[in-house]
Design goal:
By secondary structure, this protein is mainly alpha-helical. Helices cover about 45% and strands about 5% of the residues. The protein has helices at about 10-30, 45-65, and strands spanning about 35, 40. Strand 1 (about 35) and strand 2 form a beta hairpin. Helix 1 (about 10-30) runs antiparallel to helix 2 (about 45-65). The longest helix has 20 residues, at about 45-65. It is elongated, with a radius of gyration of 21 Å. The relative contact order is 0.18.
Length: about 90
């Protein structure tokens, strides 16, 4: 049975997070530090900021397409009909 998974974020939350991380990216790229909550980001964190922005953008795109992540479901044959020969 496949599970239907949805984002843990709302569109509004994602847009707010994207705005925060864009500000952090701008600040850190110019050499300043930026604080989100109790987490301080610096120029050394640029790769992680970009990675998180990509994650947020992907989540928003999935919500706007009206679907969540793709779930893959394995099917195990029953009754000894194995596709690659008989199991020992």
């Amino acid at each position: 049975m496949a599970l239907l998974m949805t984002s843990i974020w709302t569109r509004q939350e994602l847009k707010e997070q994207i705005a925060l991380y864009k500000e952090a990216l701008k600040a850190c790229a110019s050499g300043a530090s930026y604080t989100i909550g109790n987490h301080s980001l610096t120029r050394q964190d640029l790769d992680s900021i970009r990675a998180h922005l990509k994650y947020l953008a992907d989540e928003l795109a999935a919500l706007e397409r009206g679907r969540g992540p793709i779930i893959v479901q394995a099917r195990i044959p029953r009754g000894g009909n194995f596709p690659f020969g008989r199991r020992s």
